[in-house]
Amino acid sequence: MRSFKNIATLVRTKRIGHPKNYSQSDLSLLLGYKNGQFISNVERGLCNVPLKMMKKISEVLDISPEELKSAILKDHEETLTNYFNKTPSAKKSAVREGNAEVI
Q1: Region 39-56: what's the mean pLDDT?
Q2: Looking at the predicted structure, is the pLDDT value of residue 101 above 60?
Q3: Is residue 99 classed exposed, middle or buried when 0-12, 13-18 and 19+ CB atoms within 10 A define those classes?
Q4: Domain limits of the chain?
């Protein structure tokens, strides 16, 4: 299972703690999205911030590139750990059922 919890926590913490106290909707609009659903999904750990949005979100929320990189790398490490810790029978079952996760 993919992990996005580190980037989720970072974005939420920076958004809420920002002097402008952006709502999810405000931040989404600043990033070019139509509503707050995108930021909601990021903050719930359902998806990552697209690469093309990294610089913009860094600028808007005053997140250093190093902080973003660190959160993303931790998420990738957790994703790989989750993948390698799956039991072999669970992997075989997922492949047979067509549910193999692509990383």
Answers
A1: 94
A2: no
A3: exposed
A4: 5-86
Q: Which fold has domain 5-86?
A: 434 Repressor (Amino-terminal Domain) (1.10.260)
Under 8 Å between Cβ of 88 and 7: no
| d(C-alpha 3, C-alpha 9), whole Å | 12
pLDDT of 1: 86
The per-residue pLDDT for 86 is 85
The pLDDT-based confidence of 35 (bands split at 50, 70, 90) is confident
Residue matched to tokens 């989750």: 82
The model carries a pTM of: 0.80
Of the candidates 71, 77, 89, the residue with the CA atom closest to the CA atom of residue 9:
71
- Residue 52, Cβ neighbours under 10 Å: how many? 9
Give the whole-angstrom CA distance, residue 17 versus residue 74.
22
What count of other Cβ atoms lies within 10 Å of the Cβ of residue 65? 10
